[in-house]
Specification:
heterotrimer; A mainly alpha (328); B alpha/beta (251); C mainly alpha (307); B: alpha/beta; Rossmann fold; 6-stranded mixed sheet; 4-stranded antiparallel sheet; C: ABC transporter involved in vitamin B12 uptake, BtuC
């Protein structure tokens, strides 16, 4: 191995190491947890509710970031998994299933199953086709639950009680539920960052960077994408399960395509290169929405304009405009 | 002589009215370097794509290591030991040179779907990768992101990846294209070092490289093979001279 | 299921189909020619309905209001193209998704601000109100027939434009060989602008025509956008012919499914189970159709020849 050591005099540049550092993500998770504790300690239930919501959407954005950032798969249907996880809890509850150690695996399983099944079709397509077909399959799930009148149809389902943990009613207290979400978020973030660093993580990145080369190296690109997509569906469904538990309510609206768009915005805002970016993006977007809503009833208008502005700024269109140059 | 590594049996392929591969049969014997030459538009790329699996022939069979792989996908053939380089250099741009080769090793050893990092596996992969990189003269560039490598270096990296696949057959698609004279000579020398150990199918325009490396040469013209033989035989063939319309094909 | 009911539902399906075609035509051209994923296309449908409704109310004349509404839709398309979209053509799809998502949020909310969230009404013009007997015992609203006729008329017009005119030839060539078209000395930027604005006007026209039979509300473009996506994916991105055929297929399957799924299912399962499953299955039919088409032909029924 002397040769190996001798060849190590060209380490990669410093910045990718910092950018690839999971520390940022851990920082965000810590802050969300702190906000919950502070909310409970200072009697600010809104902080607690808000932080819990942020943690839930951070989990969903994390799931999307795994396929979008690492695998290059721009899924425009991830809200479907959020909704499926929520309905797993809601419908499970309707049938007397109230134990979280059963509900969470059930939600993950449902999400994974829908991802694997639709993945067989959507992963045969590329680019724009992929974007639209993931969107269409999410809409399909949306309409199916809209017409399922046995489970509330359009109006949704109310969860009358929170699930138990090994029979104990611990989630009755909001702070326990909130910290539970943060704990699962931390666990999933830790697991997924390990997966990104694993041989499979390299394989997945390879399929994104150069599909033809990956195939020629003997990588089954379709299978790699299917595995990643299924894993992502399971994680997003877990987020959905907690969304249902935290709000005490499940509705088809969770699957609305606008929500899928929001998840993409979160991932892109925080940066697609690293999983931690999704956590930052989710936090920033939700705080931004909340902040704008405080200022204006028509906060969506301002949010839309901010998004347009950000994109134009990033691609240099505004700079071109200010220079007075023609777009070329 | 032994069973051929690769045997093409009467491959035929058309795109609409365009008949691009016409009853092509050829084989590559163990240890042999077999070159395919032909003018532009002769159908070399289409033929390669049928060998690697990107295209399925309309008729005929591809046999690799005794298996009929005609219906198999690109990655299945790669796993059987068919490694290749691309005409336009193709590596993972955002990975380091070392990680590119590690990827090749990991995929070859079917560890690419392990969901958990393994320190020992990683160390072994890095050591093997550094060895392969040293072989192609990239020993000191292992930590450089592939996109930052010079063109010739990327070409060498691609070769290192192919070698790391422990190929039963190495398919080289115009490896000398776009390289300078000195680099062509270096690359030819490098490939000569693998002769007898790794059978190669060499598609190449550079006649110097072909004559220096090939044991046999097949000439592809308008989708059909018009001659196969030793480099000297092919160079002397009048049919080949006519097909090339007076182009000088002697080294 | 009797003949009368079936005829009515087929006509309803055709009517949804031509509306979908009007929206999908612009979408598929913009996709095919510019490789641009425009999520805000549904907003242009919604804008068309609002513009026509308010201009008809303001002028007191249906034809005048409709004409002005179309002109306003065209202008809105031009403004959006110049201000935002033209900067996005060369960007990757992710940036396009983000920016056009922003446009949806902003414009939907702006309309809500200006007109309120409640639906506004648009009356059917006097001349076309009422129903006609198209079969013994079957009365059908005239306006719906007008929608079908005008949709087919626009389809024929588009077909003539695309196959018979120089601009149409450029559009077809542009969708497969954009660099070649600009090499011919055509200002590709202007071609894109015209195609985009024209597509926006078609979507606006669809919105205006649908307005009297639907409620005109800020989110009315959402559902139609998704269906239009399904249509252009089935038809093959960039193909007008594909969009037309797929739009009619989707319109008919969706309408007939909603009308008859329950009764058909009741033949093979209990009535109450059919009442449960019928609507759910009906709402999945379009997507199942898409899944089947894509499994057999991943690039749609009539793919444009882009490599």
């Amino acid at each position: 191995m002397a040769m190996t050591a001798a060849n190590d005099n060209n380490p990669p540049p410093i910045w990718p190491r910092i950018a690839a550092s999971p520390a940022l993500g851990w920082g965000v998770i810590g802050l969300i947890g702190l906000a919950m504790i502070a909310g409970a300690a200072f009697g600010q239930p809104f902080w607690l509710t808000m932080a819990t919501r942020i943690a839930v959407f951070a989990m969903a954005a994390l799931a999307l970031s795994f396929v979008l950032g690492q695998g290059g798969l721009v899924s425009f249907g991830h809200a479907a998994y959020l909704g499926l996880g929520a309905y797993a809890v809601g419908i499970g509850g309707e049938h007397g299933l109230a134990e979280i150690t059963l509900l969470l695996p059930l939600a993950a399983l449902v999400g994974a199953a829908y991802a694997a099944l639709t993945g067989l079709i959507v992963l045969r397509t590329r680019g724009v086709h992929f974007i639209m077909i993931t969107l269409a399959f999410a809409q399909m799930a949306y309409f199916v639950f809209t017409s399922l009148s046995a489970y509330g149809g359009d109006d949704g389902l109310t969860l009358w009680a929170r699930p138990t943990l090994f029979g104990f009613d611990v989630f009755k207290r909001d702070i326990v539920l909130g910290l539970g979400v943060v704990a699962l978020l931390a666990l999933l973030y830790g697991l997924l960052t390990r997966v990104v660093a694993s041989p499979f993580g390299q394989t997945l990145q390879a399929t994104r960077q150069n599909e033809a080369r990956a195939e020629a190296l003997g990588i089954d690109v379709f299978r790699a994408r299917l595995v990643a997509y299924t894993l992502s569906g399971a994680v997003a469904a877990l987020a959905g399960a907690f969304l249902a538990i935290a709000t005490g309510f499940v509705a088809p609206a969770y699957m609305h395509w606008g929500r899928s768009g929001e998840l993409i915005v979160m991932v892109v805002l925080g940066g697609t290169g690293q999983l931690g970016g999704a956590l930052i993006g989710a936090t920033v977007l939700m705080l931004l929405e909340e902040g704008l809503a405080l200022v204006s009833e028509h906060w969506k208008l301002w949010l839309g304009l901010i998004l347009i502005g950000l994109v134009l700024l990033r691609i240099g269109a505004i700079a071109r405009l200010l220079r007075g140059g023609r777009h070329g | 002589m032994g069973e051929p590594i690769l045997r093409l049996e009467a491959l035929d392929k058309s795109f609409g009215a365009l008949h691009v591969t016409r009853a092509v049969s050829l084989d590559i014997r163990p240890g042999e370097v077999h070159a395919i030459i032909g003018p532009n538009g002769a159908g070399k790329t289409t033929l390669i794509n049928q060998i690697t699996g990107q295209l399925t022939p309309d008729a005929g069979h591809v046999r690799f290591k005794g298996h009929d792989v005609t219906g198999q996908s690109v990655h299945e053939r790669a796993r059987l030991g068919l490694a290749r380089t691309f005409q336009i250099t193709s590596v993972m741009p955002a990975m380091t040179a070392r990680d590119n080769v590690v990827l090749a090793i990991v995929s070859q050893s079917r560890q690419g779907f392990r969901l958990w990092p393994d320190a020992q596996l990683r160390a072994q992969g890095r050591a093997a990768a550094d060895e392969a990189l040293a072989t192609v003269g990239l020993g000191r560039r292992a930590g450089v992101i592939a996109a930052d490598l010079a063109h010739g270096e990327r070409r060498a990296l691609e070769l290192a990846m192919a070698l790391a696949q422990q190929p039963a057959l190495l398919l080289l698609d115009e490896p000398m294209a776009g390289t300078g004279k000195g680099e062509t000579e270096r690359l030819t020398e490098l490939l000569r070092g693998f002769k007898r150990r790794i059978p190669m199918l060499l598609v190449e325009h550079d006649m110097g490289a072909v004559f220096a490396l090939a044991d046999r040469v097949s000439v592809l013209v308008e989708g059909a093979i018009i001659a196969t033989g030793s480099p000297a035989e092919v160079a002397a063939s009048s049919a080949v001279k006519t097909a090339y319309l007076g182009e000088d094909i002697t080294p | 299921m009797n003949t009368l009911l079936l005829t009515v539902q087929i006509l309803n399906g055709l009517q949804l189909g031509v509306i979908l075609f009007l929206v999908a035509a612009g979408l598929t051209l913009v996709f095919g020619v510019m490789d641009f994923i425009n999520l805000a296309h549904g907003v242009q449908y919604m804008l068309g309905a609002y513009l026509a409704a308010s201009l008809i109310a303001a002028t007191g004349s249906f034809p005048l209001g409709l004409a002005l509404g179309l002109l306003a839709s065209l202008l809105a398309g031009l403004v959006l193209e110049v201000a935002i979209f033209r900067h996005l053509y060369t960007q990757d799809h992710l940036e396009q998704v983000l920016a056009t998502f922003g446009v949806i949020l902003a414009l939907t909310e702006a309309i809500k601000w200006a007109f309120g969230a409640a639906p506004i009404a648009m009356p059917i013009p006097e001349t076309f109100s009422g129903s006609v007997a198209i079969m013994p015992g079957l009365l059908y609203p005239v306006w719906r027939l007008v929608i079908i006729a005008s949709g087919i008329g626009v389809a024929l017009l588009l077909w003539a434009l695309v196959t018979r005119t120089r601009a149409g030839m450029l559009v077809r060539a542009g969708s497969t060989h954009a660099p070649m078209v600009s090499a011919l000395g055509v200002d590709i930027g202007r071609l894109f602008m015209v195609v985009f604005a024209f597509g926006a006007m078609l979507a606006g026209f669809a919105g205006a025509m649908a307005a009297p039979i639907l409620s005109v509300e800020p989110t009315m473009g959402d559902g139609i956008l998704i269906l239009a996506f399904v249509v252009i994916v089935i038809g093959g991105i960039g193909s007008i012919k594909g969009a037309f055929i797929a739009a009619l297929m989707v319109g008919l399957i969706d309408t007939l499914g909603r009308a008859f799924a329950r009764d058909l299912l009741a033949l093979v399962m209990s009535k109450s189970a059919a009442a449960q499953a019928g609507p759910a299955i009906a709402s999945m039919l379009t997507y199942m159709l898409m899944a089947v088409v894509l499994t057999v032909r991943p690039r749609g029924l009539f793919p444009a020849t882009r490599g």
